């Protein structure tokens, strides 16, 4: 930072993994940071289906922030993943070790996003230049000249003013709505059912990796392991009745079709939700920077949502620091950079994953599988493929 740098005051709206990352980076740079979190408590049920995959460039960011070792203590290293066919078995296995020349983390780390939030929250509470305000839902956000004016309700009704705001307040972002930004996109024709089980699927399906994308023209699925559970993700027709889909006997029937388990599955949690692909018209309005789900939504096939949101947070924080140091050019380019990643990488890659898994044409399925096999078998092709899927090509 140059000699003209004066640490600014920054509001961070939302203390999920995106807001937490922005707050910690800004605080470590000397900024006076106020974090406004709508929920009165940060306690979350770790059985819930939330983001759990940390890609290599995200781990690099967390290493720079000094929290990656703590996250590893609560995580599971996944060094490879598979594309499988529900009838034929393994199609291709991708070994992330081919990335070892360009990252210190040539793997995925499986760890529930709440673990990162808890780790960063503890760090923030130790810092005298940080105030974390819980139970403070944002009710309005506007501009007075170059100043952001944010008003909160709930247990903490108050007006907050700052020269900069990082809005990481999720898919239903009040900040985005108050700024009048459209959120165009689409909703997928099916809902996603996620079931977390205590059973070890690697014993029931020998040879699977910690992450598995399973194609099938009738019912594709994803199987992934977290430190606490195995998760299975299924598509559900939009017209299906939620109560019938999530009924214990219906859940058991789906799981038994994945792998026979005579004793029945021990189900920890079940959730059913709609999935969207949406990107805001702009990621920056004056002093406001939108990041994470407040700015863009995508399907979870590939684990890019939380990761790209954390990358947004880093870019937004560095843009604010650069502007405070007398260089506004980085802030001026924030929206174009991050919208470009959301549109050209995240949206494209995750939608392509969905198309691959649910493809119904036998000829196209064969072509897709052949291409995946050829790519995985060639080290250079595999490396280029994994640079994209691991988001190394879009480092913040």
What is shown here, in short?
The protein is α+β, with helices and mostly antiparallel strands and about 400 residues long. The chain contains 13 helices and 22 strands. A hairpin with a 2-residue loop joins β9 and β10.
Radius of gyration, rounded?
A: 21 Å
Strand residue percentage: 25-35%
The tally of helices reads: 13
Q: Give the total of beta strands.
A: 22
Which secondary-structure class do the elements indicate? alpha+beta
The dominant shape is globular
Strand order of the largest sheet: 6-5-15-16-17-14-18
Return residue spans where pLDDT drops below 50 for at least 5 consecutive residues: none
| Amount of helix | 25-40%
Mean pLDDT: 94
Biggest β-sheet strands, sense, barrel:
7 strands, mixed
Task: Kindly describe this structure.
The protein has 396 residues and is of the alpha+beta class. It has 13 helices and 22 strands. A seven-stranded mixed beta sheet has the order 6-5-15-16-17-14-18. The relative contact order is 0.18.
Which key terms come to mind for this protein?
single chain; 396 residues; alpha+beta; 22 strands
Topology:
Layout: E1 9-13, H1 17-28, E2 32-36, E3 53-54, H2 56-64, H3 68-73, E4 76-78, E5 80-85, E6 89-95, E7 108-110, H4 113-125, E8 130-133, E9 138-144, E10 147-152, E11 158-162, E12 164-167, H5 174-178, E13 185-187, E14 190-197, H6 201-204, E15 211-215, E16 221-225, E17 230-237, H7 242-246, H8 248-258, E18 267-273, E19 276-279, E20 284-285, E21 288-290, E22 296-297, H9 305-324, H10 329-332, H11 334-358, H12 362-377, H13 379-389
Parallel strand pairs: 1-2, 1-12, 2-8, 5-15, 12-21
Antiparallel strand pairs: 3-7, 4-7, 5-6, 9-10, 10-11, 13-19, 14-17, 14-18, 15-16, 16-17, 19-22, 20-21
Helix pairs in contact: 1-4, 1-9, 9-11, 12-13
